[in-house]
Amino acid sequence: MKAKKTLNMITQRAVEEGIAMEIGKTSRQYFDACSIIEMNEQDMKELGIMKNTNVRVKSESGEVVVKAVVGRQTCYPGLCHIRQGVWANQVVPPRTQSTGAPQYSGFPVTVEPVPNERLKTALELVQGAVGMWKGDQ
């Protein structure tokens, strides 16, 4: 069993995320819809990740802890998805390739199980990104 694995990240939209966004980004529905990473079952097994286990996702731009679930859409080995939003934004590279939009898809991330680490709320992540979060001190 490996402790870490590099995967190709694609952020995505989902119906559950859209509905939850209308309810509010600080709602439980938004948290449940967006604080997940969809992975291939084979990759999860290789990493020793059980369904609904917390994992750390790291990119060149940052890191975030999310809950691993088996891909609800087609998710080939080596590929993973986080729904677009606050959790995905922690790892999305700022490069735009002159398009004006960040690179939301096709960037490498490492994934490792961290079953004892908690997921942060959208508010904690946003406040942490701008240096306002004081709760982890």
Automatic annotation (TrEMBL):
Organism: Methanospirillum hungatei JF-1 (strain ATCC 27890 / DSM 864 / NBRC 100397 / JF-1)
A GO molecular-function descriptor: molybdopterin cofactor binding
The keyword ATP-binding is annotated on this UniProt entry: no
EC number(s) given by UniProt: 1.2.99.5
UniProt keyword list: Oxidoreductase
Pfam families, per database record: Molydop_binding
Superkingdom of origin organism: Archaea
Domain annotation Molybdopterin dinucleotide-binding: ranges: 9-106
Record InterPro entries: Asp_de-COase-like_dom_sf, MoPterin_dinucl-bd_dom
SUPFAM superfamilies according to UniProt: ADC-like
The name this protein goes by in its record: Formylmethanofuran dehydrogenase, subunit D
Enzyme class label: oxidoreductase
